[in-house]
Amino acid sequence: MGDALADGISDHEARRDEFRTTPLWGVRFRRFYLHDGRATAFEDAVRAHGGEAADAAQAYENAGTDERAALLRFLGTL
Ligand code: HEM
After folding, report:
1. What is the C-alpha separation between 70 and 46, in angstroms, rounded?
2. What is the mean pLDDT of the chain?
3. pTM of the model
4. Residue 11: is its pLDDT beyond 90?
5. Domain that residue 62 falls in
6. 14-18: long-range contacts (C-beta < 8 A, 24 or more apart)?
7. Which of 29, 36, 50, 70 falls 20 to 30 Å from 8 in CA-CA distance?
8. CA of 37 to the centre of ligand 1 (A)
9. What is the rounded CA–CA span in Å between residue 76 and residue 2?
């Protein structure tokens, strides 16, 4: 997930910047996102994606206002 999210903790084969991909089902019930709870808004969580997931964050940046809003609304339904 890139250097910005890395926590320096290796766990078995998972390196310092590798995390379990959180199931998004039920994400609407959570108030803090990412492994250390650093994000309190869906948008901040999406923008924090780096490393192998950087393309997803970039696609979000490239999307139009309506598309971004639709994605955030969708997350709020899960
Ligand atoms: C537009 C596409 C994507 C959206 C909207 C999205 C959304 C999210 C959200 C909202 C979270 C926080 C969940 C929580 O903490 O409860 C999350 C976490 C995560 N996502 Fe994504 N994601 C996307 C694409 C990807 C891709 C492509 C990857 C991997 C290549 C990925 C890997 C992860 C991982 C590993 C976490 C956990 C990170 C951590 O705990 O610090 N995501 N994602």
Report:
1. 14
2. 95
3. 0.94
4. no
5. 1-78
6. 17/50, 17/51
7. 29
8. 13
9. 25
